[in-house]
Specification:
It comes from Desulfosporosinus acidiphilus (strain DSM 22704 / JCM 16185 / SJ4). The protein is of the alpha/beta class and 106 residues long. It contains 4 helices and 5 strands. Strand 3, helix 3 and strand 4 form a beta-alpha-beta unit. The longest helix is centred in the first third of the chain and has 13 residues.
Length: 106
Amino acid sequence: MKTALCVNNSELIRKSIKKLLENSGFRVVGEADNGLTAIKLYDELKPDIVIMDIAMPELDGIQTLKKIKKVDKEARIIIISSSSHERKVQEAMIEGAIGFIIWPPS
């Protein structure tokens, strides 16, 4: 079973995404509410995929993405964003995100 790390500063959104991932056949092995914790958990858990918010405390999604990709170029990270962060989503894709999800879904 593929594993996932869910990173979002909103517990409610993390739980929603976790449920979507589990319904899609993933096992969520960790959850983080900020970028610093996400980096630590990524290093410990080595998940197959990371679903991460773009706007977070400590380190935002772009900074966290860069740090994870620096130590693991093969990291598979999908960024979650509202449509108001279009420029940040473009930056995330340039930095190596494999995709993005607009949240909340329409």
